[in-house]
Amino acid sequence: MARPTEPAPSYSKMRLLYEVYYGFRPSKPVFTPEDYPDLTGKTAIVTGCNTGIGLETVKQLYNKNCNVVMVVRTESKGIAARDAILKEYPESKGELNVVGGCDYSDLTLIKGAAQEIKEVLNDQPISIIIHNAGLMASFNNLTSEQGYELMFQTNDLGPQLLQHFLDPLFLKKDSALKRIVWVSSGAHLLGPKEYGIFWDNPTFKDAPIESRPAAAVLYGQSKSGNILQASAWAIKNKKIVDEINCVSTSCYPGNLNTDLQRDWSWIQRVLLSRLMWDGKYGAYSELYGALYPHLDSRDQGAYICPFGEIHDPREDLKAGLKNGTDLAFWDFVEKTIQPFF
Q: Which CATH architecture has domain 13-340?
């Protein structure tokens, strides 16, 4: 693949340590449910939302009368989550619809899921898209149906492919609110040195498993990619994005006790749960990107940290958002997913 045109700058280890510390001891949220606007008539699409942060995010949107399309891998789990939300918020005037089968481990399934989303929408304008679905694996040997390292496919290829199908439905001047949130992580700090990406072969296609780095580094790469995607999407679609006043951000929800750690050992879960926050706090971070009224075009590609603050990502990634590295990454992913359009 094409490499960035400029060498990656070095980054401060002290700054990295500060951001790691901040992830466990973030500032208090300043934009919380009581501050959210009424969302009657607005429609949001949230992926990976039958559990964890996504579930908490859907709850808060629905509580504000939003119509939410819940995009999940397993339909039965999505329906169970929907039914629980309906019972918890009986006064909401919103609607909840479930679209199952959006399994990023197999890119051939995404077009069908996107078509079902279109049918469910029935020409309703889309106000918010939150790419929340993700995978954080404890092992580095997981491989997708297409032969790609699974975290990269799930966290980067899948969301960009789904967005490809959503763009014609989303990029319209049909709603006063237009936001897209690409969920990243503080783990981007663990990504490789050159803009967080293994540029020689990010997917590790056809590479021996033994050549892969540790799972944490692979996860860091995938989350670096989300930061680049948030910026690149806005640049690629700048004309219409400016016309409809859309803001695209990446978001580090926080260090949270959710099902994302479901394949960790029980010892890891017990020890780290003492340092982690409830999933609802992650929803505050994501909904800052989706709803905070003072975000505007100057915040395109901003990196939102827990629980509703804008920080700089790692220094090399910050530079990559200005020197075209974000576009190089987007183009690589676009070329990789093109056979599935």
A: 3-Layer(aba) Sandwich (3.40)
